[in-house]
Sequence to fold (456 residues):
Amino acid sequence: MSDEMAVMDEDKVHADRVGAILQAVEAGQADRVTELMEPLHAADIADLLEQIGGSDRRALLQLWSGQIDGEILSEIDESIREEVIASLPREVVAEAMRELDTDDVVDILEDLERPAQDLILGALELADRVAVQQALSYPEYSAGRLMQREVVVAPEHWSVGETIDFLREAESLPDQFYHVILVDPRMKPVGYVTLGRLLSSRRVVGLRAILEDTFRTVPATEAEEDVAYLFNQYHLISAPVVDDGGRLVGVITIDDAMNVLDEEHEADMLRLAGVNDESSLSDTVWEAAKGRAVWLFVNLLTAILASGVISLFAADINKMVALAVLMPIVASMGGNAGTQSMTVAVRALATRDLTAQNAGRVVRREVLVGALNGLVFGLVLAGVAGLWFGVPMLALVIGLAMMFTLVAAAMGGILIPMALERFEIDPALASGPFVTTVTDVVAFFAFLGLASKVLL
Fold:
């Protein structure tokens, strides 16, 4: 069976299961709901809760609330998480929160309103509550919010044997950890050792002899997107987090850093389309419309500007209908070329591959790409226009206009995101309307302006 067929079969099984669960909910069959939900992974349960309607979700939670655990709550999209928590008995929420590491609790808490936050904080043990409150005191979207407080540390003078004995005798350890962090007497991290090196070394070997070269610390106030970049750039598995005095306060692991990267990529994709980066399929009609309206309004203004350019040549268009026929082709090609350059630029800025040092080379490359494509497609369109309308000079005009438009589109697509980034405006969010305006205005001016001088 091919991979495609396997995916289709899996989708059908999932759809059948969802249908059976909803039927059991409608019939009030709690045992049947539990039987159907039992085999599902926490992420699949979260997907199910996100995909069904609000009334079905509340009915399902009433029948199955006792089975909700911390892992499921951490997987649920933040757009419906507060609704889900409000639908659960207080004791279920309390027990679920006790199962989670502090970074997961913080991730859940920061998206909730104050009453829901107080409910969860009150359910935590004193030490966990203090740790979570301290994490919440750090700026939003910072390393301090992203880190977990459960850290495995060892004095820098210990040996492998002493460390292994300590780990075996410890009453509790984090569910997942990748390094043992070495600290000096002032609790400042000086390096770390991977579990693999620890277990493969002789007991008498000192920890300092098997330190990893990749060791880096992260300030607690560091922006989380910078942390994610650090992990991706240097292939880190975990990184200690330090306070202003350089003392260890937590650790960030690769799963949290990759979640940030995923969220950044998803947000950039939505922003490029002019959609609110907090939107989701569970939004109401009003929320979805409101989130998209701002940039639709900006697009309306820029479209009016482009139409104003066309109106300057209304008399020329009336004299030669072919201009009205060919004009959208030039604008469409320019818009697509501009979007291509803009997408390359926004991605390169996000990954920090486009910098002040290589900006000149990148802009030059995009302009040459635009010129080459303009030449090729200008010749193609000139040939089409010549055969279509039988006016040789019209073919020349459309060919030159295509050349100018694609060069301008390439320049706008690369320079506008760079300029927005320079003025600390999100290029993923704001580039689209401006690039579209530049390409449309240049396309109409180039084509209609040349036509008015050469043909009329």
Summary: DSSP finds 21 helices and six strands in the chain. The chain has a mean pLDDT of 87. Residues 285-454 form a domain with the Tetracycline Repressor; domain 2 fold (CATH 1.10.357.20). Residues 108 and 312 are 56 Å apart (CA to CA).
